[in-house]
Backbone:
């Protein structure tokens, strides 16, 4: 079944609504991945980000764009979904955040060359049909020495069970009644490292990303959320997504433009 990327136009107006399945990406995933990104930023750039430019590739509803803006970055967010970009703009306005959102795809970013200190791409690489083009555009947009932050789904039997079977195919626990991931398009870490290196992005680290809760009853929370008895945001918080020892489900990391 092909990926239905149009789902972001159908339900993208309410990314920030905890009852929207897209909010699974926010409840604990936003703080979990951003905590790791803050560690990398501190190691590579220090602690003062005022005036630095950040490019959010596949910005969706603006979850991460707002986090980067709050710590001082001048953020440009790019996403192909008009509905999602409108939602991101509206939410940024409620928090008085100056974020420049643009309509565009990762394969042809509407940004100039050698401009950004940081680029990041989360929950996106497993959706694109031309991975090399997206990474090439990212490298083009980054300044020499610029930092690339990423996360994506691994292609393992474990990820197939969690990301495909539980979250997409099983009727009792799936987020949507349509396909949002194709397991064959998921990327193993070694494959991504090669793709990054081909475009002059030298990988610095890869770490695991996934649910840290060991309670098997969390699957029941997914079923409750699918029935409307629990918000998707709360289901995400209970799963406690963040850095893990294993990359079997998903992973995150960084690379530096040579």
Residues:
């Amino acid at each position: 079944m092909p990926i239905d990327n149009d789902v972001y136009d159908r339900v993208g107006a309410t990314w920030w609504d905890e009852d929207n399945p897209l909010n699974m990406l926010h409840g604990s995933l936003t703080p979990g991945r951003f905590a790791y990104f803050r560690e990398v930023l501190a190691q590579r750039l220090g602690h003062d980000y005022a005036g630095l430019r950040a490019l959010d590739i596949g910005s969706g509803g603006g979850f991460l764009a707002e986090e980067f803006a709050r710590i001082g970055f001048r953020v440009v967010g790019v996403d192909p979904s008009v509905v999602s970009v409108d939602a991101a703009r509206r939410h940024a306005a409620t928090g008085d955040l100056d974020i420049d959102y643009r309509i565009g795809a990762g394969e042809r970013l509407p940004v100039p060359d050698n401009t950004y200190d940081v680029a990041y791409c989360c929950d996106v690489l497993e959706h694109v049909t031309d991975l090399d083009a997206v990474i090439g555009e990212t490298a083009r947009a980054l300044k020499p020495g610029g930092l690339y932050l990423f996360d994506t789904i691994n292609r393992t039997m474990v990820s197939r069970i969690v990301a495909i079977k539980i979250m997409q195919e099983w009727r009792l626990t799936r987020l949507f009644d349509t396909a949002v991931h194709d397991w064959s398009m998921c990327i193993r870490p070694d494959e991504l490292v090669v793709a990054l290196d081909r475009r002059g992005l030298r990988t610095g680290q890869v770490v695991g990303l996934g649910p840290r809760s060991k309670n098997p009853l969390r699957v029941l929370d997914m079923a409750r959320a699918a029935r409307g008895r629990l918000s998707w945001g709360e289901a995400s918080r209970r799963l406690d997504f963040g850095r893990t020892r294993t990359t079997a489900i998903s992973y995150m990391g960084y690379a530096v433009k040579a």
